Amino acid sequence: MKDYIEKRAINVANYIVTNNATVRQTAKKFGISKSTVHKDVAEHLLYINPVLAAEARKVLDVNKSERHIRGGMATREKYLHQRR
Asked: Count of alpha carbons within 13 Å of 44, Cβ hemisphere only?
């Protein structure tokens, strides 16, 4: 595996863990696609640092389980602002 991919995977995972970041937030911060974030955490990081990969996966799983709530709240805010 290329050296820059390993460094990116570690940086991405550290950012996710320290900031409780979503995949979208992480992708935007690093200027990469959501698919790349997933691939770095799910595949590349397992070979580099399995402990960090597990921590990042936990955060992403929590975010995934809460995303329907955040989406509903965003839609509610959108329509509340339109009424005013």
From this structure: 20
Mean pLDDT, all residues of the chain? 90
**How many residues belong to the chain?**
84
Q: Output the pTM of the full model.
A: 0.79
Cα–chain center distance at 36: 10
* 54, two tokens: 């597990």
